[in-house]
Amino acid sequence: MDDYKDFITYSGNITSIRKNVDKKYIWFDIGKIESYEDQDGKVRTNPSYFSARIYKCYENKINISLNDKVCIRGIPKGYVDKKGYRQNYIHVTEYNGINIDENLIDQFGEDIDGTPLWHGKRCESTPPSEEELKEMQEILDSFK
């Protein structure tokens, strides 16, 4: 039965962002105001919130900001915290139409010191050699 996964779609505005909960995920809350009619026929409003998590490697690829309007799709998950309370959240698989792929962590993650990785290799700038500088200059000169 593991081949089947339940998905949930939720939309609203980002009300909080937590980047330091753990090393692998960014956690954020999505909130919205829901309206309903009470027994007396009066329209009432009720704030509604849902927590979500997304892989940290998407932090620089998707601009996650407070008050942004978002629509996410994901797998509903939950756990019981240290105090015995049930905590529910959405593990994001799609963020505003962008497909979130777990395999990108290996390709575009971060090293332990925060240096970005590209296919598992550190992305560090190195100055060009004299030969590379000459080649770049020749290319630029051809446009003049």
Can you count the helices?
A: 2
Mean pLDDT: 85
What's the quaternary structure here? single chain
- Rough shape? elongated
Structural class: mainly beta
**Poorly predicted ranges:** none
Q: CATH homologous superfamily name? A: Nucleic acid-binding proteins
Biggest beta sheet summary: 5 strands, mixed, barrel
What does this structure look like?
The protein is mostly beta strands. It has one domain (8-141): OB fold (Dihydrolipoamide Acetyltransferase, E2P), CATH 2.40.50. It is 12% helix and 45% strand. It is built from two helices and eight strands. It has helices spanning 104-108, 130-141, and strands at 8-18, 25-37, 43-55, 69-80, 86-95, 98-99, 117-118, 121-122. The protein has a five-stranded mixed barrel with strand order 1-2-3-5-4. A two-stranded antiparallel sheet has the order 7-8. Strand 7 and strand 8 form a beta hairpin. The longest helix has 12 residues, at 130-141. The radius of gyration is 22 Å and the shape is elongated. The chain starts with 7 loop residues before the first strand and ends with a helix.
Question: Could you give a quick summary of the protein structure above?
Answer:
The protein has two helices and eight strands.
Based on the model shown, name its key terms:
OB fold (Dihydrolipoamide Acetyltransferase, E2P), 144 residues, two-stranded antiparallel sheet, 8 strands, elongated, 45% strand
Blueprint (SSEs and pairs):
Elements: E1 8-18, E2 25-37, E3 43-55, E4 69-80, E5 86-95, E6 98-99, H1 104-108, E7 117-118, E8 121-122, H2 130-141
Parallel strand pairs: 3-5
Antiparallel strand pairs: 1-2, 1-4, 2-3, 4-5, 5-6, 7-8
